[in-house]
């Protein structure tokens, strides 16, 4: 049967394509195996910027890979023991390695220079954790302790003791001051990082625990065991949610990102599980020995896994396939290759690896170029998503690989910075489309989710219902306005820094003694957590004195005019003010009136109990101008008492003394038999009723305190005198009677004689 030539040509073409397909399949399935000098990897770590990968080996070295160009940038031999744990400070400045003998070494990432050896653990350092602020380092050890270190001072702070077995993993919740640790003793322990005290102990009941992590919402905590299962806990109630049989051997690491859980295990697999159910999403295989550690890129697109087989593999999360492998040898040589059989390596690397068929890999070139370019054959965007913007920081960043020559965000071109770093600003939240192009038109595309981070801010000036120092939540911004609880308010009233609302303190004796008529001072102390700016003193007469302080601590001694109550205000640089009240008092003092004023007379002795700026307070008289009084005694005359020395009173009548008092100034009072009678006049006639006859001591006292005395005797009329008077009366009556009788007799005799004559 004759076959047309066109059909034959088509069959030949199909056959060629089939052969090419089989060849490509064979190439892409190639696997390289390192020789015996490729030491096992115990741990790996990734720098925050995603540019450097660290691997710790059992040959006592730390190898640092530059992921932007694929070069092994450092091969560090810092200590003579296995490297068991690694960490990088958030700012990328410090590398930290823990060792099998308990030593921790901190070095400079840029130079590899060791800075400090931290020695406190007595056995293997199993886990290192640096807090988000970069100030504190936590280390978990096989000695059953968690050590707390100051990373800024590279100094030991305290030990957290409670576990009865090796502590294998820890996770930190900074907002709640909590640290969570798991151990071979099968317990999850919760610590208060502010005090170092153990808060809670939970028995997981799934055997020895090897790993722990918490979701980004701080709602679920997952622990992994050395037997393979995972156990989920509700963080609010600490009730167990579920147990998931994730692996067949020890779970060596747990990472939770978004709604996915990434785990590694000594069963040689990496698994991706869903959150919160823990159902299997994807299983990644390829290592020939235990997977000892995993890290995740910032954008969650790449997994780096370290293994006891001596390799670090790079996996595409979406596809679940290996993008490349990094191999470090004991003498510092290294080798890296990608899935299509091409490799980039040092000069000795090719002779140390072989394919599964025993062949040497195809050499693409001895000059090491961009590893990531070799891996993907396309421009790459390394972006962490989502990213948050705040009121004051709307910067967003990502990194592109070296072939990228042009970058757009939502079709707007953005300049590329040094080392492929791209920084730009946005004014709103939402999804941004990022594209990175190479010179021939290939491009990578990623979606960056931008969230507006609700920001807690502080009121720095009273506005609306909010008072200075109040904390509010800002949910959006528009130009220079902020959205606070649904109300747009000007940005000028708010700050992300809490204002100093603590007022100054005023201390001192609340009652202070001074002397009337002498210079007086008010003494007190002002202090502030920042700086006291001004002190105001308000006297009893409302006179204000202002003192400039400008110091956090000051002893104040201010001259004042008089006694009484003083109000003191201290004001700091933030406008906070404090008030205190002090009282100046003095003992009463004697003065004399120097010139007449009102009811006061010159020479009068008075008592001053208080003092003002221009006046004294005189007891019983009130405020008097200072120039009216003197402290020098003024001598005046004594009062005069005028009276009969002896005075008489009938027995059947009131007995009364009568006398007159006078003074050149004023008679204040008269005292008779210790009983006082007010006078308050220059001259007065007195009638004082007394109880009986006898001698009475009369004392007159003037305003100056001068006194005079006089004794007055009150007596009854004399008896002899009475009798004499009556006798005189009787004699007179008798004489008159006799005289009348004689007159009558004489008249009678004359009449009788006349009568005789007539007869």
TrEMBL record:
<keyword id="KW-0853">WD repeat</keyword>
<keyword id="KW-0508">mRNA splicing</keyword>
<dbReference type="GO" id="GO:0006397">
    <property type="term" value="P:mRNA processing"/>
</dbReference>
<dbReference type="InterPro" id="IPR015943">
    <property type="entry name" value="WD40/YVTN_repeat-like_dom_sf"/>
</dbReference>
<keyword id="KW-0812">Transmembrane</keyword>
<dbReference type="InterPro" id="IPR001680">
    <property type="entry name" value="WD40_rpt"/>
</dbReference>
<dbReference type="InterPro" id="IPR052234">
    <property type="entry name" value="U5_snRNP_Component"/>
</dbReference>
<keyword id="KW-1133">Transmembrane helix</keyword>
<keyword id="KW-0507">mRNA processing</keyword>
<dbReference type="InterPro" id="IPR019775">
    <property type="entry name" value="WD40_repeat_CS"/>
</dbReference>
<feature type="repeat" description="WD">
    <location>
        <begin position="160"/>
        <end position="201"/>
    </location>
</feature>
<feature type="repeat" description="WD">
    <location>
        <begin position="284"/>
        <end position="325"/>
    </location>
</feature>
<feature type="repeat" description="WD">
    <location>
        <begin position="76"/>
        <end position="117"/>
    </location>
</feature>
<dbReference type="Pfam" id="PF00400">
    <property type="entry name" value="WD40"/>
</dbReference>
<dbReference type="GO" id="GO:0008380">
    <property type="term" value="P:RNA splicing"/>
</dbReference>
<dbReference type="InterPro" id="IPR020472">
    <property type="entry name" value="WD40_PAC1"/>
</dbReference>
<feature type="repeat" description="WD">
    <location>
        <begin position="118"/>
        <end position="159"/>
    </location>
</feature>
<feature type="transmembrane region" description="Helical">
    <location>
        <begin position="726"/>
        <end position="744"/>
    </location>
</feature>
<keyword id="KW-0472">Membrane</keyword>
<feature type="repeat" description="WD">
    <location>
        <begin position="41"/>
        <end position="75"/>
    </location>
</feature>
<protein>
    <submittedName>
        <fullName>WD40 repeat-containing protein</fullName>
    </submittedName>
</protein>
<dbReference type="InterPro" id="IPR036322">
    <property type="entry name" value="WD40_repeat_dom_sf"/>
</dbReference>
<dbReference type="GO" id="GO:0003723">
    <property type="term" value="F:RNA binding"/>
</dbReference>
<keyword id="KW-0677">Repeat</keyword>
């Amino acid at each position: 049967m004759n076959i047309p030539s066109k059909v034959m040509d088509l069959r030949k073409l199909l056959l060629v394509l089939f052969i090419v397909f089989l060849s490509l399949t064979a190439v892409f399935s190639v696997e390289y195996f390192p020789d015996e000098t490729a030491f096992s990897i115990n741990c790996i770590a990734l720098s925050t910027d995603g540019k450097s990968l660290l691997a710790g080996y059992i040959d006592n070295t730390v190898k640092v890979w530059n992921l932007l160009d694929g070069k092994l940038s450092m091969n560090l031999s810092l200590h003579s023991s296995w490297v068991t744990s690694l960490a990088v400070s958030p700012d990328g400045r410090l590398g930290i390695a823990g060792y099998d003998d308990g030593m921790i070494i901190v070095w400079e990432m840029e130079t590899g220079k060791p800075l400090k050896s931290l020695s406190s653990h007595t056995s293997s350092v199993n886990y290192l954790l640096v807090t988000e602020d970069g100030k504190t380092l936590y280390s978990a050890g096989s000695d059953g302790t968690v050590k707390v270190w100051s990373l800024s001072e590279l100094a030991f702070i305290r030990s957290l003791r409670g576990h009865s077995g090796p502590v294998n993993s820890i996770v930190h919740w900074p907002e709640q001051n909590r640290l969570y640790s798991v151990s071979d003793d099968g317990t999850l322990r919760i610590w208060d990082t502010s005090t170092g005290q153990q808060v809670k102990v939970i028995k997981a009941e799934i055997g020895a625990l090897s790993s722990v992590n918490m979701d980004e919402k701080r709602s679920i905590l997952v622990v992994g065991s050395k037997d393979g299962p995972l156990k989920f806990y509700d963080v609010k109630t600490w009730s167990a949610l579920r147990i998931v049989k994730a692996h067949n051997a020890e779970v060596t690491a747990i990472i939770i990102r978004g709604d996915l859980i990434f785990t590694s295990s000594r069963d040689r697999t990496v698994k991706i599980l869903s959150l919160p159910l823990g159902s299997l999403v994807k299983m990644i295989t390829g290592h020939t020995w235990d997977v000892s550690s995993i890290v995740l890129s910032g954008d969650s697109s790449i997994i780096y896994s370290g293994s006891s087989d001596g390799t670090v593999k790079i996996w595409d999360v979406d596809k679940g396939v290996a993008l490349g492998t990094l191999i470090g040898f004991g003498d510092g040589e290294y080798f890296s290759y990608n899935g299509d059989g091409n490799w980039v390596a040092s000069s000795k690397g090719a002779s140390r690896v072989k394919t599964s068929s025993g062949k040497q890999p195809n050499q693409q070139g001895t000059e090491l170029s961009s590893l990531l370019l070799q891996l993907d054959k396309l421009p790459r965007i390394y972006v962490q998503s989502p990213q948050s913007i705040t009121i004051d920081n709307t910067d967003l960043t990502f990194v592109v690989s070296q072939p990228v020559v042009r970058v757009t965000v939502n079709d707007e071109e953005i300049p590329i910075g040094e080392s492929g770093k791209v920084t730009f600003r946005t004014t709103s939240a939402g999804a941004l489309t990022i594209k990175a192009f190479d010179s021939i038109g290939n491009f990578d595309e990623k979606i960056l989710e931008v969230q507006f981070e609700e920001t807690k801010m502080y009121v720095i000036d009273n506005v609306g219902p909010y008072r200075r120092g109040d904390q509010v939540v800002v949910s959006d911004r528009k130009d220079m306005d902020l959205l606070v609880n649904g109300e747009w308010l000007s940005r000028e009233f708010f700050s992300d820094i809490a204002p100093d609302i603590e007022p100054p303190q005023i201390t001192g004796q609340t009652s202070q003694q001074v002397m009337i008529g002498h210079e007086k001072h008010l003494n007190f102390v002002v202090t502030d957590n920042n700086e006291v700016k001004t002190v105001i003193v308000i006297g009893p007469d409302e006179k204000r004195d202002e003192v400039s302080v400008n110091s956090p601590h000051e002893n104040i001694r201010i001259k004042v005019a008089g006694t009484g109550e003083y109000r003191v205000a201290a004001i700091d640089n933030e406008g906070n003010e404090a008030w205190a009240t002090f009282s100046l008092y003095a003992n009463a003092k004697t003065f004399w009136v120097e010139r007449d004023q009102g009811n006061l007379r010159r020479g009068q002795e008075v008592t001053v109990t208080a003092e003002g700026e221009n006046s004294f307070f005189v007891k019983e008289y009130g405020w008097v101008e200072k120039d009216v009084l003197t402290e020098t005694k003024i001598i005046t005359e004594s009062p005069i008492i005028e009276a009969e020395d002896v005075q008489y009173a009938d027995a059947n009548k009131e007995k009364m003394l009568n006398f007159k008092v006078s003074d050149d100034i004023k008679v204040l009072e008269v005292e008779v038999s210790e009983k006082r009678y007010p006078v308050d006049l220059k001259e007065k006639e007195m009638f004082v009723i007394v109880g009986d006859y006898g001698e009475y001591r009369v004392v007159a006292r003037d305003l100056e305190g001068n006194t005079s005395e006089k004794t007055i005797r009150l007596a009854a009329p004399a008896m002899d005198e009475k009798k004499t008077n009556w006798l005189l009366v009787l004699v007179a009556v008798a004489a008159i009677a006799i005289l009348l009788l004689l007159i009558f007799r004489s008249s009678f005799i004359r009449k009788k004689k006349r009568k005789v004559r007539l007869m």
